[in-house]
Amino acid sequence: MVVYIGVDLHVRTQTVCWMNTADGEIHQHTLDHRRDDLRAFYAQFTAPAVVGIESSGYALWFHQLIEQAGHRLLVGDAYAIRQFARRRQKNDRRDAELLLD
Q1: What's the CA gap between 23 and 77, in Å, rounded?
Q2: Can you give the residue ranges of every domain in the chain?
Q3: Distance between CA 34 and CA 95 in Å, rounded?
Q4: If the chain, 101 residues long, is cut into consecutive pieces of 10 residues, what is the mean pLDDT of each piece?
Q5: Torsions phi, psi of 21, nearest 5?
Q6: Inter-residue contact 19 to 39 (CB < 8 Å)
Q7: Furthest CA-CA distance within the chain
Q8: Is residue 26 within 8 Å of residue 56, measured between CB atoms?
Q9: pTM of the prediction?
Q10: Helix, strand or coil, per DSSP, at residue 39
Q11: What pLDDT is recorded for position 84?
């Protein structure tokens, strides 16, 4: 089983959508950027999960967090990812789900 995680990062929070290949069900959660809470959240996934984010200038700390958890981080071009969207309206959950794709 592989877990795929899409994360829409913000300065103080992140919206996370994840799916495992065993059941294909998509789950969603919003997290505050409290280091212990984030470590506990990402530790629940069997390593190595595949985590996707949009390119960002403030994501180095997140890269380190994911690497320490034993997961693989993929960084995608924000513009290219948005091209997959059916609607142009911004929505954190939709952005996180797009990163799953």
Answers
A1: 28
A2: 3-100
A3: 21
A4: 92 94 92 96 92 88 96 86 61 67 64
A5: -75, -10
A6: no
A7: 35
A8: no
A9: 0.80
A10: helix
A11: 62
The closest alpha carbon to 62, from 93, 89, 54, belongs to 54
The whole-number pLDDT of residue 79 equals 74
Contact 18, 5 (CB under 8 A): yes
Beta strands 50-54 and 3-9 are: parallel
How confident is the model at residue 87, as a pLDDT? 56
Structure tokens belonging to residue 56: 């960002």
Angle at 69 between CA 50 and CA 51, to 5 degrees: 20
DSSP state of 71: -
Give the number of C-alpha atoms closer than 13 A to the C-alpha of residue 26, restricted to the C-beta side.
15
> Phi then psi for 89, rounded to 5 degrees?
-65, 130
Beta bridge pairs of residue 14? 9, 31
Q: Which homologous superfamily is 3-100 in? A: Ribonuclease H-like superfamily/Ribonuclease H (3.30.420.10)
Question: How far apart are alpha carbons 32 and 23 in whole angstroms?
Answer: 27
Residues shown for the chain: 101
